[in-house]
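ingest -> validate -> predict -> emit
validate: passed (alphabet ok, no gaps, 167 aa)
predict: started
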Amino acid sequence: MSLSAEERERISNAIRATEARTSGEIVCVLARSSSEATALPIFIAAVLSLALPWILVAFSTLAVREILLLQAVAFFALAMLLCLPPVRVALMPRAARRAAAYRAATDQFVARGIARKKDRAGILIFVSLAERYARMQPVFDRLYTHSQALYDDLDAQRGPDDLAPGA
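emit:
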């Protein structure tokens, strides 16, 4: 999905009109996908390809060379199919999709420097199409120091396998 020029102009006009009435900045990010993780699709392709020779040996009279060739072709075909963005995203557990999108939204918030703006007032509207995830992340000067300390504490406690809050 992509936005037409008319839709982009309507969004830009709405943002400019809102920013004119506030001291904060509004930043919109529309991402096709929040993650390019391919480990699960490759793992599934490998497992299915490893099972194929056993099935072919049991139910066919193919030579070993033909079986190995079919195994290699099956692996590459499955890997290409399962790594297509819609299939790859569908294979990811919902919690993992949300965690990837949450992390991408947080990264965009930091990368775009919203928290460093004058008076630390701003909002990021992040939409990830593949994960069907949207997040509005505001920051205000009064809340910034308290929330930043909380986020720092949470990041320090979060393990590498932990998922996004609420996931």
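The chain has two domains: 5-32+93-157, 39-91.
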